[in-house]
Design brief:
The structure is a single chain. The protein is an alpha/beta fold. The chain has two domains: 1-32; 35-295, 3-Layer(aba) Sandwich (Rossmann fold), CATH 3.40.50. Helix content is 41%, strand content 11%. It contains nine helices and seven strands; from the N terminus they run H-H-E-H-E-E-H-E-H-E-H-H-E-H-E-H. The chain has helices at 2-22, 73-96, 107-110, 123-132, 148-154, 179-183, 188-205, 223-240, 282-295, and strands spanning 99-105, 115-116, 119-120, 138-142, 170-176, 210-214, 245-248. The strands form two sheets. Strands 4-1-5-6-7 form a five-stranded parallel beta sheet. Strand 2 (115-116) and strand 3 (119-120) form a beta hairpin. Helix 5 (148-154) packs parallel to helix 7. The chain is globular and about 45 Å long. It comes from Triparma laevis f. longispina.
């Protein structure tokens, strides 16, 4: 009899977990994603890319984060929660008004909102960003740690962050993505091809918007890879893209003055603006926004 009740309770528990995990939101979009794994349940923390150049995710194929691109089940849950928040925030904005500038990207973009995977941080970055765009309707959709393939998924139909209604006008889009592809060991060509795929997707979804593509910001020990990826990005965009797509070179303001006129592969990061050699601080965000506004003639 005891075994019978144990079996019943176990079945009810499994059913409850399924209902919680896959319960649809009020708007019918599932508040969860499938956790992708090619092994058992212990794949968290397995390197995304191996030393021989093989990677478990493709930079050009949309995918949510997988066990290979998060460190733990807790981080996966936080990514899902933050992505859902981004989608709902975007839907609310798109229903009500046009957007002057839409920012898409990773942690560099998320920091502009004062969060990292939804957790409060980065007050200086948020203050500089908000001050730069007083009087404008701007929206920043970033997720810390994301790579090109994750942003592709987020702006696809399933991710839902660019489900734009016909009444919504998005005037300009700023794309800043790709540094994390290099950070996990993807080649410069993989990272660049992912960036180009994001740009192609955005131009199809928002054909009337001006698109500004940030070259990958300078990044310490990865600078040679950054320079190679940026050269490929420039070549693809200049040869393939319509005139509404422009290259932004605002990253040059984060380079030490003594090497600014040398080849990009030789650049070193000015820690006054990128203290961790990756993310702009408050003054760095101000430089970046001033540069963008000048490029956009705003």
């Amino acid at each position: 009899m005891n075994q019978y009740f144990v079996g019943v309770i176990s079945c009810l528990f499994v059913l409850l977990i399924i209902l919680i995990t896959f319960a649809p939101a009020e708007n019918g979009i599932v508040e969860s994603v499938t956790v992708h794994s090619r092994g058992g349940g212990d794949d968290y923390g397995t390197p995304l890319c191996s030393k021989d150049g093989g990677c478990r995710e493709s930079s050009t194929e949309p995918t949510p984060r997988t066990v290979f691109s998060v460190r733990s089940p807790q981080q996966m849950a936080q990514w899902i929660k933050t992505q859902n928040h981004n989608r709902r925030k975007a839907e609310a904005v798109f229903r009500k008004s046009s957007v002057d500038v839409l920012f898409l990207g990773d942690s560099i973009t998320e920091y502009l909102t004062g969060t990292s995977l939804g957790q409060a941080c980065c007050d200086d970055q948020k203050r500089s960003f908000d001050k730069a765009w007083v009087g404008s309707n701007v929206l920043a959709l970033g997720l810390s740690g994301d790579q090109t393939q994750h942003l592709l998924w987020r702006i696809s139909g399933e991710g839902g962050e660019l489900n734009v209604g016909e009444a919504t006008t998005i005037k300009r889009v700023v794309i800043n993505i790709g540094t994390n592809n290099l950070g996990v060991g993807m080649t410069p060509s993989m990272a660049a091809d992912g960036v180009v795929k994001v740009v192609e997707t955005v131009t199809k979804l928002l054909p009337n918007a001006e698109v500004w593509v940030e070259q990958i910001f300078p990044r310490g020990r990865l600078q040679q890879s950054v320079a190679s990826a940026n050269a490929r990005i420039r070549n693809h965009i200049n040869s393939r893209m319509p005139s509404s797509v422009r290259i932004s070179t605002c990253g040059k303001y984060f380079v030490n003055a003594e090497v600014k006129h040398e080849s990009e592969a030789s650049w070193t990061v000015d820690r006054a603006y990128l203290p961790d050699e990756l993310h702009p601080n408050g003054p760095g965000v101000k430089l970046w926004m001033d540069c963008l506004k000048s490029d956009m003639n705003i």
